[in-house]
Amino acid sequence: MNVLAGAALTPEGWRSGPVRVGADGRIEAVEGTLLTEAQVRQGPCLLPGFVDLHVHGGGGADTMEGGEAVATLARTHARHGTTALLATTMTAPRAEIEAALRALAPHVATRPGQGARVLGVHLEGPYINRERLGAQPDFATTATLDEVLALHALAPIRLVTIAPELPGHLELIVALRGRGFVVQIGHSAARYEDGVAALAAGATGFTHLFNAMTGLHHREPGLAGAALAHAERAELIADGLHVHEGAVRVALRCIPGLYCVTDATAAAGMPDGEYRLGRHTVFHCLGAVRLPDGTLAGSALTMDRALQRLLQLGLPLAEASARTATLAAQHLGLADRGVLAPGAWADVVQVDGASGALQRVWVEGEAIAR
Which terminus of the chain, N or C, has fewer Cβ atoms within 10 Å? Predict the structure, then answer.
């Protein structure tokens, strides 16, 4: 049995600890008395490991590369506290997407040593609107259920980003939800009304809220307006570049299940320089990742920094933890990740209670070397 010392955030509140972990990598017990957050923030705190549903790369590796790229990014993000993630594809010709899925499937079946658990695939494209590509290459197309199922047979797809205004996509949302896929709206030129219809059809979230979608205007509320008015969940890139602090605060007030993602590229965890993002060459400089024309192209963000940014906005540590772990796990329907509770996987991060700075990481009970 492994014993993790420190005040621990449980679904019931803060406990004085310790957390006891069995040989199977699952939590056996979280012990101790209940404490207030003010009490626990004087020292090290144990939180659920971060869950990131939007990861293109890290450590110099890109999901679309094949080979050991997914293992490399899983290890890179684990060192920054991410204990579970979705490997996220780029818009590309179908043959390239198929090759990427075949290459990453073994890393879903078996967790890379010293790495985060790869829960499956976030298929971000090609089923998006070419009017809102963002940094996606221009291989956008409409989807069919048979095509998505064929890709799913190569590697487990957990989440699909779709532009709902494209022909047949509202009906596809219904079909995908009926088969257990999580569907998000994104990279879309949809009107407000299209967004509301997509939510009614079964979409449950929005991909990188505010980015690559129609914005909010008081006479034309757009897709961002539909999210703020009606969404229960949405992902947001909390790097301080993709979304202004004021817009983050608006989203926090409006969307109960708002959770953070990194949208990380191969530049995450790496120095400034030139990297790959699917077919694109991108440049990491001064904290941003951009295309040659200056367009933001994913990020170099890691989830430990996302947690600290939420704390800097004034969120309590418990809420910041929920928005970097628990809510994303719930979005995928996972009851045994994103929480510190008996029976859950021992995915744990230790942070400094005052600053949120990351100190230690465990993935399924395995201590990650930092």
Answer: N
CA 348, 56, 86: angle at the middle one, nearest 5? 45
For residue 34, tell me if it sits in a domain.
Answer: no
Distance CA 280, CA 24 (A): 41
Q: In terms of DSSP bridges, do strands 233-237 and 358-363 run parallel, antiparallel, or are they unpaired?
A: unpaired
CATH code of residue 301: 3.20.20.140
Decide if 246 is inside a domain: yes
Strand-pair category, 233-237 with 257-261: parallel
Residue 343 covered by a domain: no
Map tokens 């809420």 to a residue.
319
> CB burial class (10 A; 0-12, 13-18, 19+) of residue 109?
exposed
CA distances from 71 to 96, 100, 318 (A): 19, 13, 30
Read off the tokens for 351: 């942070």
Q: Give the separation between CA 300 and CA 307, rounded to whole angstroms.
A: 15
Residue 63, CB-side half-sphere exposure with 13 Å CA sphere: 29
Question: Is 163 inside any structural domain?
Answer: yes
How many beta carbons lie within 10 A of that of residue 130, not counting itself? 16
pLDDT at 45 over 80: yes
C-alpha span between 228 and 225 (Å, rounded): 5
Q: Which two tokens stand for residue 172?
A: 């596809």
Q: How many CB atoms lie within 10 A of CB 175?
A: 18
Domain hosting residue 281, numbered range: 49-335
Domain count, the chain: 1
Residues forming the active site? 263
Residue 30 burial (10 A CB sphere; 0-12, 13-18, 19+): buried
Residue 279 reports pLDDT greater than 80:
yes
Chain segment 286-332, per-residue pLDDT in tens: 999 999 999 999 999 999 999 999 999 999 999 999 999 999 999 99
